[in-house]
Specification:
The complex is a heterodimer of chains A (176) and B (804).
Chain A: H1 2-20, E1 45-47, H2 62-66, E2 72-78, E3 84-92, H3 101-105, E4 111-113, E5 128-129, H4 131-134
Antiparallel strand pairs in A: 1-4, 2-3, 3-5
Chain B: E1 3-6, E2 9-12, H1 19-25, E3 49-54, E4 64-67, E5 78-80, H2 84-97, H3 115-122, E6 146-148, H4 158-166, E7 173-175, E8 182-184, H5 198-202, E9 208-210, E10 223-224, E11 227-228, E12 237-243, E13 246-252, H6 265-269, E14 284-285, E15 288-289, H7 292-310, E16 315-318, H8 325-338, E17 343-344, H9 349-361, H10 369-373, E18 377-381, H11 385-388, H12 390-401, E19 405-409, E20 421-423, H13 430-439, H14 447-462, E21 466-471, H15 472-490, E22 498-502, H16 508-514, H17 521-530, E23 535-539, H18 543-546, H19 550-558, E24 562-567, H20 572-576, E25 579-582, E26 591-594, E27 599-603, H21 613-616, H22 638-645, H23 652-662, E28 679-680, E29 704-709, H24 717-720, E30 733-737, H25 738-744, E31 751-756, E32 759-768, E33 775-779, E34 792-801
Classes of the chains: A alpha+beta (176), B alpha/beta (804).
Chain lengths: 176, 804
């Protein structure tokens, strides 16, 4: 019996090899050939713009608070029109684990994960992305949303000018 | 002492406690917005509802759902917080409060420390059900300190109760009616109260936010630690917050014995000194920046050379009331190490004597801010609390609000946030009036003055808890002594009369306790002039700017062979010294201040020193480089630098232990908790020698006595180096009595020349009625040519009309 088992053990691997020699290969010839990842793939982070072309990021620090590896840092500032924005915004991609918690935390749809997975550099410092490297010219996964049209403090629209707002009250009137 | 049952737990609380506080004592936290321990209950937010199952044994039967903050705990009450009915009401109230909220937390500075945010999340209200329109308001410009965003308001009235009731401001309040309640000013404009910043802390949401800190950081990113305010002698608890190596804001801490819950605007917005681009951050030999070992070695070598040539008395040490107790103690240790007896812990001789007299005599007469708040009669003599210790003015205001009364004897036109009888007497009469009050002999005074003084004397005697408050600047050493003696004279039997003296710096009392063997700054200066002192080491002190005789001080300093300084501010001394050692700002190092009543208040280190990222990045992102060292991180705590100069390396705990072992007055210092209530020193200082008396009569015909007085936002050293306060610096005007104006032919608002022995000054005159005649009141300002006049009554002046 042991002889038959040895013969089978010798011949079978040759048979498996021979069979697979005539199968179509599954390997993709990267980088000559590229796969298209699904739209919700989590790779390089981007900062998107609202439909009016303004920066969506209000530098609320929620992404940096949510980040489990502390790779996001920023400084918020105030524009002359009262808009809160990031004076600088830095993501250290050499530290990022692409978990997507920052995008989940973002209340304005500003920070989003993009499917751009081709991401390697020779120097660590080149992996540190500043705001100008992160900003893109589109709205990412949602091209409609503008945070300031919903938050009632009057930056894009005049005060009380949003869809769900009444015009400012007249404090000095006595009428009911 | 009623005993009540809350959620099946029994608790006994003092008479008059409300049910909300009683629940808090059991550890049951019920959400609330409008109730605040210091402001009391108004029942406006409707959030602290509890179900009352059984009413009290006595009094009206209370059953059903009631606001717990409005119900006084009575014996036999049975209350439930978990009852379905009240829990449901609370849930709904949160939803109603959110009905008109702008939902702008990402761009709101309150986010992260917002009570409304916390309560909404805790109440489980996540999805907005109401589909109607949101109410909106137009905001106001409330000046450089406060941002206004009315849309976020939930109408809890805390701001009005803080601003008007507690702080006595009159230019801010509640307007409108019905659905249009509005919290703001009648017109746009800067809030006038020097306590305006408190509405930022009081507001449970983001209607009022700190404008100087607008969009700078989130509370979870801030480095915070309990600290003590370094701007005056009151020792209020503060919590500074720093981020990116920058001190970004200060908020009020809680210390029941000192400030309670609030602080003044100087304490809140005077933080910019730590971030200045021109702050000296490296040790220096002359103009050359060197390392610590090199600077310490050079300084020690130079001192040893001078000692070898001229004896150990040729080196002198000058501490200050702005340096911590530990730093001053280490300076003394250093003087002992070199065998020198020449040291002083305050440069102004009169302030030095006043503080030392206070430290020597105050003893059991000392009253804390808390005790002033609970007093029923307060007499202020030569004290301008709003400018010399702003929170003291609020403490007296609380006493007056609770039914007490206050009187003021002061030559200056003093503004106060409460009603008080004002008796303007000339500064040289203040000691006399204290003597007269103690002895009840008023013959020397005019008929009107006699009536007022007799009234004051009667009110002190009637009062159960009277306090006399004096100002060290105006009373001086002899006045401080007389004030404390008067307090003793008024104390009898079971009823004690207290005393408090507003001193110059945060650690004046502590320095005065340590300065027992000091020959005083006057002797130091004289010896420097004679050339017997060859080297001076200044610890966070600026003899160029703070001596009442600047000419003499400059002359004496110019004769020195070696001037060394330790400081964290770019003062003139720091600029001109031969050897400079950078020290940490108060928020960057731990230490202890001893406040005006002798209370030891330890504070913690908030952040490590370094050039703010705002500066290294030039406003843009931080430099893209890896460095092993933080730029500008060289400053060391003064106590550490002074110990290193002796070749010693001591921890702060070690210094504190040494201090309490060698000096029984500081017993318990090492065990004190940072951010705690602190503890009064256990014993007194030593009386200083007497200073020269000012002549009773003006030096020349037509001369007026020059009263230089501290002013808020303008006088205090650290605050004067804080650019945040620049928009509210006081205007340089002098004040003159109307009678003197008429006599000299000077009109209100006129520009005249003020002539003193220190030189001429072009000044604008304001005429006042509520002040003593024969004086000119000049504010102490630290900018430009006004800086030479330091607080106190030192000289006479002549007012001359321009071109006359």
């Amino acid at each position: 019996m042991n002889v038959w088992r040895d013969i089978k053990g010798t011949v079978q691997p040759f048979w498996v090899t021979l069979r697979n020699m005539f199968r179509r290969p599954v390997t993709i010839q990267y980088p000559e050939e590229k796969r298209v990842p699904p739209p919700r793939y989590r790779a390089r982070i981007i900062l998107t713009r609202d439909p009016d072309g303004g920066e969506r990021c209000v530098a609320c620090y929620l992404c940096s608070a949510a980040c489990p590896v502390d790779c996001i840092s920023m400084q918020s500032a105030e524009a002359p029109d009262g808009r809160r924005y990031a004076a600088w915004f830095r993501i250290n991609f050499s530290r990022c684990i692409y978990c997507g918690l920052c995008a989940e935390a973002c209340p304005t749809w500003a920070i989003q994960m993009s499917p751009d997975y081709e991401f390697s550099k020779y120097a660590t410092l080149d992996m540190v992305y500043e705001k100008e490297d992160l900003l893109v010219d589109h709205g990412g996964k949602d091209n409609e949303y503008n945070y300031y049209r919903h938050a009632g403090i009057g930056v894009v629209n005049p005060r009380g000018g949003n869809e769900d707002e009444a015009p400012p009250v007249d404090v000095r009137t006595n009428l009911p | 002492m009623p005993t009540i049952t809350i959620d099946n737990q029994r608790v006994t609380v003092p008479e008059g406690t409300n049910v909300l506080e009683a629940a808090k004592k059991l550890g049951i936290v019920i959400p609330h917005f409008c109730y605040h321990e210091a402001l009391g209950a108004v029942g406006a937010c409707r959030l602290c509802a509890m179900t009352f199952l059984e009413g009290s044994d006595k009094g009206p039967k209370l059953k059903g759902v009631h606001m717990s903050c409005m119900v006084t705990a009575r014996d036999g009450m049975v209350v439930s917080t978990l009852d379905e009915e009240s829990a449901d009401l609370r849930r709904h109230v949160i939803e109603w409060l959110m009905m008109n909220h702008p939902h702008d937390c990402p761009v709101c500075d309150e986010g992260g420390e917002c009570q409304l945010q916390d309560m909404t999340v805790a109440g489980g209200h996540g999805i907005r059900r109401y589909r109607g329109l949101k109410k909106t308001y137009v905001n106001q410009d409330l000046g450089p300190f406060i941002s206004h965003e009315m849309n976020r308001c939930i109408q809890c009235y805390r701001c009005v109760r803080t601003y008007q009731d507690y702080c006595g401001g009159t230019d801010f309040g509640v307007l409108g009616c019905n659905q249009r309640i509005y919290f703001g000013r009648f017109r746009d404009g800067t809030l006038q109260s020097p306590f305006s910043g408190n509405i930022v802390d009081a507001c449970p949401t983001g209607v009022f936010t700190d404008r100087t800190y607008r969009f700078r950081a989130r509370p979870w990113d801030l480095e915070e630690a309990p600290s003590v305010c370094p701007h005056c002698s009151l020792g209020c608890a503060v919590i500074p917050g720093a981020r990116y190596r920058e001190l970004q804001r200060v908020r009020a801490g809680v210390n029941a014995k000192t400030n309670g819950f609030f602080i003044c605007d100087q304490g809140r917005f005077g933080y910019g000194h730590a971030n200045r681009p021109d702050r000296p951050r490296s040790p220096r030999l002359g103009e050359r920046e060197v390392s610590w070992p090199e600077a310490l070695g050079a300084l020690r070598r130079e001192l040893e050379i001078i000692i070898a040539e001229h004896g150990s008395q040729a080196v002198a040490f000058l501490g200050s009331s702005r340096a911590s107790l530990e730093s001053n103690a280490q300076l003394l240790e250093l003087a002992r190490f070199f065998g020198s007896e020449n040291f002083a812990l305050e440069i102004d001789p009169e302030r030095d004597r006043a503080a030392r007299t206070t430290a020597a005599l105050l003893g059991e007469c000392a009253r804390s801010q808390e005790e002033v708040r609970r007093s029923d009669f307060v007499l202020l003599v030569g004290a301008d609390p709003l400018n010399e210790g702003p929170m003291m003015a609020l403490a007296v205001r609380q006493a007056v609000r609770a039914g007490g009364s206050a009187a003021l004897i002061d030559p200056r036109p003093v503004e106060l946030p409460f009603a008080a009888t004002h008796l303007p007497l000339s500064p040289q009469n203040l000691p006399e009036v204290l003597k007269a009050l103690a002895e009840e002999r008023f013959e020397r005074f005019s008929a009107r003055e006699r009536t007022v003084l007799a009234g004051i004397s009667a009110r002190i005697k009637e009062a159960k808890r009277p306090v006399l408050i004096g100002g060290g600047n105006l009373l001086g050493s002899s006045g401080a002594q007389l004030l404390i003696e008067a307090a003793r004279a008024f104390s009898r039997g079971d009823r004690a009369c207290g005393a408090a003296l507003l001193l110059a710096g945060p650690n004046s009392f502590g320095s005065a306790l340590l300065a027992a063997q000091s020959p005083g700054p006057d002797r130091l200066l004289a010896q420097m002039q004679e050339g017997r002192i060859r080297a001076l080491l200044c610890l966070e002190s600026d003899p160029f700017a703070d001596h009442p005789e600047p000419g003499r001080a400059r002359m004496a300093l110019s004769r020195l062979k070696l001037l060394a300084a330790l400081d964290y501010l770019p003062t003139e001394t720091a600029r001109r010294c031969d050897i400079f050692l950078p020290t940490t700002a108060p928020a960057e190092s731990a230490g202890t201040y001893v406040n005006f009543e002798g209370r030891m208040l330890p504070f913690g280190s908030v952040f490590d020193p370094g050039v703010p990222i705002q500066i290294t990045g030039g406003g843009d992102h931080p430099p893209r480089s890896f460095e092993a060292h933080t730029p500008g991180s060289l400053p060391r705590p003064a106590w550490a630098a002074l110990a290193a100069l002796r070749g010693d390396s001591l921890s702060l705990a070690h210094i504190r232990r040494n201090l309490q072992r060698s000096d029984a007055r500081f017993a318990g210092l090492a065990e004190l908790e940072e951010g705690g209530e602190g503890r009064r020193v256990n014993g007194a200082g030593q009386m200083p020698g007497h200073g020269p008396e000012l002549p009773k009569h003006p030096s020349a015909e037509g001369a007026l006595r020059l009263v230089v007085t501290e002013c808020l936002f303008g006088s205090e050293t650290i605050a004067s180096f804080s650019p945040v306060l620049d928009p509210v610096r006081p205007a340089p005007v002098v004040r003159l009595h109307v009678e003197d104006g008429v006599r000299l032919g000077i009109h209100d608002g006129e520009k005249v020349r003020l002539r003193t022995e220190l030189g001429d000054l072009a000044v604008e005159v304001r005429l006042c009625e509520a002040m003593a005649p024969g004086i000119v009141v000049l504010p102490r300002l630290r900018q430009g040519e006004w800086e030479i006049f330091v607080p106190g009554v030192h000289r006479d002046c002549i007012l001359q009309k321009e071109g006359g």
